[in-house]
Amino acid sequence: MPFTQISLKKGTTADFRATMMESIYLAMRESIGIPEDDRFATIVELEEGNFTSSGNYAGVERTDNVVFIQITLNAGRTVDAKKALYAAIAKQLEQDLAVRPEDVVVSLIEVSPEDWSLGNGLAQYA
User: Fold this and answer.
1) How many CA atoms lie within 13 A of 47 on its CB side?
2) 2 φ, ψ to 5°?
3) Least buried of 13, 87, 104, 117, by fewest C-beta within 10 Å?
């Protein structure tokens, strides 16, 4: 059960944001095989001046249209699976929304199954 938190520059449409969440979901389905209908995501739009992309850090020239994607998910995926996830997200966002791959920044937070409560105060995976 990944939980995706997306931060981007303010000014996108509701359709753009909905497509972004769906595109990231589809990329996760394709690359790391998350369950069908496992859609847990939020988007936060940030005012100019409330984010920085560090310009060309790590040799990647980003713009102010950078999209930060933080995914919390169960630990245990291989490095190759993570690389496939990053590539799938960048490709899907470029295809669906014309987001430059250079502007897609992804970070993963890995947790244990018992670190989730999906409602009712229960640890469904523990």
Assistant:
1) 1
2) -70, 150
3) 13
The per-residue pLDDT for range 76-94, each reduced to its tens digit, is 999 999 999 999 999 999 9
Query: pTM of the prediction?
Result: 0.94
Is the separation of the CB atoms in 31 and 85 below 8 Å?
A: yes
Identify the burial level of 42 via C-beta atoms within 10 angstroms of its C-beta, where 0-12 means exposed, 13-18 middle and 19 or more buried.
exposed
Sorted by sequence, the CB contacts under 8 Å of residue 96 that are 6+ apart come out as 19, 20, 22, 23
Q: Are 66 and 51 in contact (CB under 8 A)?
A: yes
Nearest to 93 by CA among 14, 17, 10: 17
- Paired with 45 in beta bridges are 8
- Distance between CA atoms of 45 and 67, rounded to whole angstroms? 10
Q: Which two tokens stand for residue 92?
A: 């899907």
CATH of 3-115, one of 3.30.429.10, 3.30.310.50, 2.30.42.10, 3.40.50.10860: 3.30.429.10
Domain ranges of the chain: 3-115
